[in-house]
């Protein structure tokens, strides 16, 4: 019930902030119609999925101006409430499995199989270990992530939440909402957590 | 035909038959080294495109030489740098690939299905479209990109393209803008162009189509966008659809003034 209220208020704020003219509304309409007519569902990437934007995707598709603080706060609040922490309160899995997930860029593409195992593709955007030099820079470096922060309860919880739903802390972050959107499962997130936080992980050496 | 191109062509044929015989990848690499020292293999596509342009074909057995790409029938020079644009005869905005479909169906009598049968070539299944685009685009080399958004439908294509560019959706919440709206970003080691920054947009837009070394084919903007959509976790865009023309319109307009320098050579 609480989630519902947060979501509704987010919708209301976004609606109230919209000041698009009739002409611009028409461009929006043409664009949405093209999404329906010009794309073909293939593998796990379906037309249905891109047509059903959630409130966050909608708010983050704006280009006329940055979202107001009020909208950003509403997004973060609503997304924080989506986070499911590990059922057994155990946050760390295997760092070596986490490394494989970080390397794997497959999953949910039209060229991938339906129901296949998704990767996290963390290296696409982040530096993580020192050994892997092929890393992107859309996100910050995560090298020495655990060494710099330790692994107290607050750090564990925050890191879990950030991977699960990055928009709980940064509205319209470029980072996928790995847990919330069902890209990585609980075990996989534990493994990525271990890659970042396990003192034995190459990230922290 | 320049002698250097003949040599390149022969080397290509040689390398293909050799690779076919034992499938050795080091020979493939040797082939590329050789070709790169000779020039851009895209020249072979340009030559084939010229032949296809001038050859009588289709049920009507006519060439494409009377095709109007926006500058008048048969005028190729400067056509590519003004596309996409509004065409009165169809009351639509078209990019080059859509316009080629139009000419091949109206002039040559092909069906749309025939005219779009192989948009993207592969070994053993060459595309007629990629060479035609390479040939036509090359005729604009050295000219400035000059995109009109004066006609209401041109303006609409640009505005719709912009909205598509920023539209976040799908499993990963990605939009084109996720990767292509900031300076100096990379995916792994691959540089990403900021397509809303004029100089970056110019650098990118003026170098397509391109011979992709990793694919051994000349690829057009339609192919580039299609592969972006795949990585964006979007469904497959229909070839030469209005949505892709709109996106191309947005990119092309952002690159206005850039000096065209393609077909180029890319990774």
How would you portray this structure in words?
The complex is a heterodimer of chains A (205) and B (267). Chain A has 9 helices and 1 strand; from the N terminus they run ααβααααααα. In chain A, helix 1 (2-17) runs antiparallel to helix 5 (69-80), helix 6 packs across helix 9 (186-197) and helix 8 (153-164) crosses helix 9. Chain A is mainly alpha-helical and 205 residues long. Chain A has 2 domains: 2-74, no CATH class; 95-204, Cytochrome Bc1 Complex, Chain D, domain 2 (Orthogonal Bundle), CATH 1.10.760.10. Chain B is mainly alpha-helical and 267 residues long. Helices cover 46% and strands 9% of the residues of chain B. Chain B is built from 11 helices and 8 strands. A 3-stranded mixed β-sheet of chain B has the order 6-5-8. A two-stranded antiparallel sheet of chain B has the order 1-2. Chain B has a two-stranded antiparallel ribbon with strand order 3-4. In chain B, strand 5 and strand 6 (217-219) form a beta hairpin. The relative contact order of chain B is 0.14. Chain A binds chain B through residues 24, 27-28, 30-31, 34-35, 37-42, 44-47, 49-53, 56-57, 60-63, 108-111, 123-125, 134-138, 174, 176-177, 181-183, and chain B through 156, 159-160, 162-175, 177-179, 182, 184-190, 192, 229-231, 233-238, 241-244, 246.
Question: Which SSEs are present, and which pair or pack?
Answer:
The complex is a heterodimer of chains A (205) and B (267).
Chain A: H1 2-17, H2 22-37, E1 39-40, H3 47-51, H4 55-59, H5 69-80, H6 95-103, H7 145-149, H8 153-164, H9 186-197
Helix pairs in contact in A: 1-5, 6-9, 8-9
Chain B: H1 3-22, H2 25-38, H3 42-54, E1 85-87, E2 92-94, H4 96-106, H5 112-115, H6 129-138, H7 152-166, H8 176-180, E3 185-187, E4 190-192, H9 198-205, E5 210-212, E6 217-219, H10 221-231, E7 236-237, H11 242-254, E8 264-266
Parallel strand pairs in B: 5-8
Antiparallel strand pairs in B: 1-2, 3-4, 5-6
Helix pairs in contact in B: 1-2, 3-6, 7-11
């Amino acid at each position: 019930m609480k989630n519902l209220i947060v979501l509704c208020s987010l919708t209301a704020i976004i609606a109230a902030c919209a000041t698009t003219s009739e002409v611009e509304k028409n461009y929006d309409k043409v664009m949405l119609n093209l999404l329906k007519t010009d794309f073909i569902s293939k593998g796990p990437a379906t037309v249905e999925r891109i047509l059903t934007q959630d409130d966050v995707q909608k708010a983050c598709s704006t280009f006329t101006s940055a979202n107001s603080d009020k909208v950003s706060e509403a997004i973060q609040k609503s997304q924080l409430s989506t986070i499911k922490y590990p059922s057994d309160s155990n946050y760390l899995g295997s760092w070596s499995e986490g490394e494989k997930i970080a390397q794997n860029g497959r999953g949910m593409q039209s060229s991938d199989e339906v129901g296949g195992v998704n990767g996290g593709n963390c290296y696409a955007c982040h530096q993580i270990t020192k050994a892997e030099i092929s890393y992107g820079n859309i996100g910050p470096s995560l090298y020495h992530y655990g060494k710099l922060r330790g692994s107290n309860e607050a750090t564990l919880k925050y890191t879990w939440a950030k991977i699960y739903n990055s928009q709980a802390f940064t509205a319209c972050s470029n980072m996928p909402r790995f847990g919330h959107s069902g890209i990585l499962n609980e075990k996989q997130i534990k493994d990525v957590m271990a890659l970042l936080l396990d003192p034995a992980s190459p990230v922290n050496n | 035909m320049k002698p250097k191109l003949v040599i390149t062509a022969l080397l290509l044929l040689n390398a293909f038959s050799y690779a076919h015989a034992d499938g050795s990848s080091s020979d493939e690499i040797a082939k590329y080294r050789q070709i790169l020292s000779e020039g851009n293999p895209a020249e072979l596509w340009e030559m084939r495109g010229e032949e296809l342009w001038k050859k009588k074909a289709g049920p009507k057995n006519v060439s494409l030489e009377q095709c109007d790409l926006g500058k008048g029938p048969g005028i190729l020079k400067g056509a590519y740098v003004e596309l996409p644009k509004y065409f009165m005869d169809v009351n639509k905005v078209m990019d080059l690939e859509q316009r080629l479909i139009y000419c091949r169906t109206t002039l040559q009598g092909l069906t749309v299905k025939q005219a779009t049968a192989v948009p993207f070539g592969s070994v053993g299944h060459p595309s007629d479209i990629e060479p035609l685009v390479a040939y036509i685009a090359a005729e604009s080399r050295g000219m400035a990109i000059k995109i009109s958004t004066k006609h209401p439908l041109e303006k609409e294509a640009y505005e719709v393209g912009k909205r598509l560019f920023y539209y976040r959706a799908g499993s990963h919440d990605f939009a084109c803008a996720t990767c292509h709206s900031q300076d100096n970003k990379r995916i792994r080691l691959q540089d990403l162009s900021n397509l809303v920054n004029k100089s970056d947009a110019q650098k990118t837009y003026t170098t397509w189509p391109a011979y992709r070394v990793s694919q051994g084919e000349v690829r057009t903007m339609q192919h580039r966008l299609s592969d972006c959509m795949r990585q964006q976790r979007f469904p497959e865009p229909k070839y030469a659809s209005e949505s892709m023309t709109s996106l191309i319109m947005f990119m092309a307009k952002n690159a206005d003034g850039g000096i065209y320098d393609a077909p180029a050579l890319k990774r």
